[in-house]
Amino acid sequence: MLCEDCGVSAVEFSPSSLPSASDRRSIRAVMSDLDGTLLDQASWVSEHTRRTLESLHAAGIPFGIASGRDVVSIERLMEQWGITALVDFVSGLNGSEFHDRRTGEVSRGHLIEAGLFREVMDFFAGLPVAFSIIEDGVFLTPRATELMDEMTAWARVKVHEDPDFDRLLDTPQAKLHIFCDPAQMGLLQERAAGWDDPRVACLRTGPNLIEFMAPDVDKTLGLDAMAQTLGLDVGAIMAFGDAENDTRMVERAGVGVAMTNGCDDTREAADYIAPPNTEDGFARFAGTWFGLPRP
Are 29 and 286 in contact (CB under 8 A)? Predict the structure, then answer.
């Protein structure tokens, strides 16, 4: 989502806009969103970005992914992208999951009580939407529709129609996805604004997607977990993001970087604005900040 006339206070990226090399050394780790940030317009890791991750790894700078996707599907895609050995941490489902890939330890939490997502689905009854819950890296849905086709294509995820979808609603879950036609997002957000049960919160995460999850879940959970595991303050971590679910992570990190294609809130929360994901913005910014070899 390209923002125009945002009026942000963050610094537009150029090598001369960065602090001195000695000051930049206070940043000792990097965490990045995937879609719209690390990935290009084809939901792929470009050659420039992959080589930048290789250089970060060679320099001993830990790298973590923070995504609304789940850990299982992220790590499947990491193999396709050729970056499995270059990622130290994966925070999935907006912070509900955290995998320390160095030790293999996985933590999961912040689940919504059984039955509550059924109430959410009933609340949206009558709207042209599709519902989905992720299980083992697959988007399960009670009825497959064309509303999920676009995501299946660009996000490279698996979707499966589950005739026993109710079983998921009868057990605690981390997140419920609600898909719509982008042209109908205003209608969906208007309905969502009427939801007043504090046990679950709503967030728009794409032009055709809103997500319901625990109100205390956001990507700062992964940022904090990464910092604690490394024995660092969050001020020593650089975070990249673009969408609404990246805003607090970018704001909380020692150096917050929003993409040019980012939403207003995330750009306003950032310290720097990187070039867009379509122009290797992550690689260009990180490579310059850390003085990495040019690919």
Answer: no
